Structures are given as C-alpha cells and as structure tokens.
Amino acid sequence: MAEYFLGLDIGSVSIKLALLEGDTLTAKAYLKNQGLIPTIQQGLKQIPQVKIRGVGVTGSGKEFVSSLVGGDYVDSEVISHMVATLREYPDARTIMDVGGGR
C-alpha cells in the first residue's frame, strides 16, 4: 500500500502544496494566498484524495496552519531550502531566498 505525505509552504503571497508518494512528487498546487483557510481548502481540492500518512508545514504561517491540519513536522523555510538544495546539489555553497513579503 502506498504511503503519501503532504507538504505545505505557507507564504505571504502564495501557498504551495506537494503530495509525495515516497520520494516521488505525485501532485502539486500553487495558489495566490487569498486567506489561509480558503486558499488551503482550494489547494486540497487540487490534489488526489488519498490517505495521508504525514504532513509537513513550512513558511511564514507554519505554526497556525500546522495546528489546523494536524501537522507532523514544522520547520522554517530556511531549513527547508537548505535540506532540499543540499539533497539535489550537494556541492552548493550559497542559497538565496527571495520572499514575497512586504
């Protein structure tokens, strides 16, 4: 039986969702943030309805959203960027994050 994991990146400008089956990206959604709850609800409608084993949340609204969705893992976007970059580019020495906050 497949194990699915959901990742949410809660930004001030946009909200991103990624559904993973193991290490494979199976679905994703990118939405303009028009309010946390309605935007997340809209994003969840864009991914397949499967049993999700775990939820990770990052971004500026991570604590609040994690409490809403029952997040299993919450971390800063800086740590998330570092882990993902070093996984894909192990020799990287610089990571730049240009956020949309005003």
UniProtKB/TrEMBL annotation:
InterPro entries: ATPase_NBD, Dehydratase_Activator_Redct
The protein, known as: ATPase BadF/BadG/BcrA/BcrD type domain-containing protein
